[in-house]
Known about the structure:
There is one protein chain. This protein has one domain (8-76). The protein is 19% helix and 50% strand. It has one helix spanning 62-76; strands at residues 8-11, 15-25, 28-36, 42-52, 55-58. A 5-stranded antiparallel beta sheet has the order 1-2-3-4-5. It is globular and about 35 Å long.
Amino acid sequence: xxxxxxxxxxxxxxxxxxxxxxxxxxxxxxxxxxxxxxxxxxxxxxxxxxxxxxxxxxxxxxxxxxxxxxxxxxxxxx
Length: 78
């Protein structure tokens, strides 16, 4: 997987997010994103998305989301 940490991506053709972390969980690629405001400054809006061969989709399954939050928290505390 290509390293996209600190890169800015645009979702839905309008909202910009910075990739704060990325990783593989159960064989799939996920990004931890923070939304940027109009000045491209970090906000408090955080999202976790799946990168499925370049197609970015929000994680909506609550059990998976909880597991990914733990996964990214564990990575950050190392």
